[in-house]
Amino acid sequence: MNLNPTFGSIFLATALVSSAAAAPKKFVIDNQKLAYRNVASIESVADFETFTGKTNAVSGWISYDAATKKGSGKIVVDPATIDTGIPLRNEHMRSAGWLDTSKYPQIVFEAVKVQPTRGDEYKVTGNFTLHGVTKKVSTTVRVRYKAQGPATKAAGFDGDVVQLSTKFAISLDDYGISIPANAAGKVAKEVTISLSTYAIAN
């Protein structure tokens, strides 16, 4: 069947526009200008001690389409910058017996499957790498999208913005981190990882 050239051209143009409109945007996490707004933390609640380590050294990217609710992404955290509030504890945490940050300078989460659940919540399954070990993790992620406008500009963002937040628990044993006898009861075997980060359209 031969299509009328004019109709064919309109059909093709419409298809291309629809395809472009559905293409996910890439958002980049600013680890320089807006680093203070990006927070990753690790919380340990043990029998005799509770502490939270935090860092603003978060980088990476997010690919997201607000219309189709499809996305992917990669988040990288620098473990050597995590601060627990006590310098000596920070030093121990970075040492070879714990996170060994000189050998393993990155904590990475890379999404491999994103499923919308309700509202701005998604079930995200990805590969979480810590201490040189990679395990599959599933977590609930909240994604909030704001198109560029007066509100985003007033907040210091130059472009469309995606805000992402999540929290999930991991076992240190799964990542080859053993708690020595002298730290028993002071460091939990299961810790909670939290992330809140902003990314700007590239």
Give a short synopsis of this structure:
The chain has 202 residues and is α+β, with helices and mostly antiparallel strands. Helix content is 15%, strand content 46%.
Descriptive account of the structure:
This protein has one domain: Lipid/polyisoprenoid-binding, YceI-like (Lipocalin, Beta Barrel), CATH 2.40.128. With about 200 residues, it is α+β, with helices and mostly antiparallel strands. The chain contains 3 helices and 10 strands; from the N terminus they run αβββββαβββαββ. Strand 6 and strand 7 form a beta hairpin.
Determine the mean pLDDT. Answer: 89
Task: Please compute the radius of gyration using only Cα atoms.
Answer: 21 Å
CATH H-level superfamily: Lipid/polyisoprenoid-binding, YceI-like
Instruction: Count the domains.
Output: 1
CATH fold name: Lipocalin
- Structural class determined from secondary elements: alpha+beta
Strand order, sheet with most strands: 1-4-5-6-7-8-9-10
Uncertain regions: pLDDT < 50 for 5+ in a row?
7-21
- What's the overall geometry? globular
Features:
single chain, 202 residues, alpha+beta, Lipocalin, eight-stranded antiparallel barrel, 10 strands, globular
Architecture blueprint of SSEs:
Elements lengths: L4 H18 L2 E5 L9 E7 L4 E6 L2 E8 L4 E8 L9 H8 L12 E12 L2 E10 L2 E14 L3 H5 L6 E11 L18 E12 L1
Antiparallel strand pairs: 1-4, 1-10, 2-3, 2-10, 4-5, 5-6, 6-7, 7-8, 8-9, 9-10
